[in-house]
Write a structure and sequence with these properties.
alpha+beta, Lipocalin, 13 helices, 9 strands, about 15% strand
Length: about 425
């Protein structure tokens, strides 16, 4: 039989503490803002509640373009389809809308609840909500690094490109993707945010999370990575989670007495305590299981261990024969090929002598040893080739390109041919090897 839940058991001192008007208003604002920003968490982590998440997203998708066009005077169409960027015009308007809703809501709340002396109880539950949301978000990024799906190893395009032609974000992705060990290190640091899921280790988890997030925020701003808004919000959440310990931390570093943490906040008692533990265990267990399972699946699909498509590789032109004439490798010749690249399934990329790439669809039959190349814009005009592949050494293809006969001899190049890959780790460096 359940005991009566004593959810709001506070010390007499806490019950009588009077907050200032500004403190109460500030809490109301941040409470509403965090709830607007984080909702529908944790429902969006549970498949059964996908409909709620979709409805909430549809609400924002309906009003954000109107707010942007009508209230903020932004001209043109404001896209609502997520494309990987968290710093779209849509996202900035969304933050503005949430700010205004929270501001207006806190003004109304202040009028309706003006006799309230403090929000200690509600602040505790908001604190729990934010720390869970922050911990699970950072753990998601941590798993993406541990399974190395966020930053894959540099592909052929990166290895062929120059630093000067790469974007700041591309440079950062290459830097992170190069080292598995550094991915594991940063991923483990983010996974330690999971310490915030447990009350006794929340402070340690918050400190680690803030240190991790300061680096992430700086990287996003300095390398123009479009997660600036989201990472900044996560950092603010980390500061909020640690805020109950500010005075104790200050005292510690100033050689002043550090009193034990005040535990006089709402708790679950009796059998309700075990009910809470059971629900928490199931929720955390589900998050861990789904994160690990999806990490394994993503690794198989597009991680470093994903299976390569047929004809995967980088092929450098050795001889290019067009209509019986062998074309010399002149950089002024826009007809002659320089390289053929097969990186992803169903796609191929041809680099011409001017270093420009043209992108095509690719269909291959490894049994008949035939390939079909055609433009994505013109799927009716297909170029048929026979090929002979000597794995790791050479590729010979011949057929018809438009109305021309074409025979191309390639030599195979691997990632290990690039200095970035083959340099490796060295304990001893007699001199700096900086190229």
């Amino acid at each position: 039989m359940w005991e009566t839940p004593n959810l709001m058991e506070l010390s007499p001192l806490a019950q009588s503490t009077t907050w200032s008007t500004s403190a109460k208003f500030g809490f109301r604002f941040f409470c509403l803002y965090f709830l607007l920003y984080l909702f529908p968490f944790p429902l969006n982590s549970i498949p059964l509640f996908e409909a709620v998440s979709n409805l909430f997203q549809q609400f924002w998708d309906a009003i954000i373009p109107w707010i942007g066009n009508t209230i903020l005077g932004i001209e043109g169409t404001i896209g609502t389809v997520f494309n990987g960027s968290g710093d779209r015009t849509y996202d900035y308007i969304l933050v503005f809308a949430m700010f205004m809703f929270a501001l207006l809501g806190s003004l109304l709340w202040s009028v309706l609840d003006r006799k309230r002396i403090n929000y200690i109880k509600l602040n505790h539950w908001l604190w729990v909500y934010v720390r869970y949301a922050l911990a699970i978000s950072l753990m998601g990024y941590g798993f993406a690094k541990v399974f190395k799906t966020q930053f894959p190893s540099p592909h052929f395009f990166r290895l062929l490109g120059t630093y000067g032609d790469s974007s700041p974000m591309g440079l950062a992705w290459t830097f992170m993707g190069y080292s598995k060990a550094y991915n594991y290190f940063t991923g483990t640091a983010e996974l330690l945010a999971g310490l915030m899921l447990f009350r006794r280790t929340t402070s340690l988890g918050a400190i680690i999370s803030i240190m991790v997030l300061v680096n992430i925020v700086m990287m996003n701003f300095c390398f123009d990575i479009p997660v600036k808004l989201y990472s900044t919000h996560l950092l603010l959440m980390g500061i909020y989670v640690l805020s109950p310990d500010f005075k104790r931390i200050w005292n510690f570093f100033n050689n002043q007495p550090v009193v034990p943490k005040d535990e006089s906040y709402p708790v679950w008692s009796g059998n309700w305590k075990w009910f809470r533990i059971a629900i928490k265990t199931l929720f955390i267990g589900y998050i861990l299981y789904s994160s690990i399972d999806s990490g394994i699946e993503r690794t198989k699909q597009w991680g470093d261990n994903a299976p390569n498509p047929p004809l995967y590789g980088l092929y450098e032109v050795d001889q290019f024969v067009l209509n019986g004439d062998t074309l010399p490798p002149l950089t002024t010749d826009t007809t002659r090929w320089q390289r053929l690249l097969v990186q992803w399934s169903g796609r191929t990329h041809i680099q011409h002598m001017d270093n420009k790439f043209k992108h095509y669809n690719l269909e291959s039959d490894t049994v008949a040893q035939t390939m079909t190349i055609y433009s994505r814009q013109d799927t009716l005009n297909k170029h048929q080739f026979d090929y002979q592949l000597d794995p790791g050494k050479s590729l010979l293809m011949n057929g018809i390109w438009a109305s021309d006969t074409l025979e191309v001899q390639f030599k195979v190049r691997g990632k290990e041919d690039f200095l970035l890959v083959n340099r490796g780790f060295n304990w001893i460096n007699e001199r700096p090897y900086n190229r």
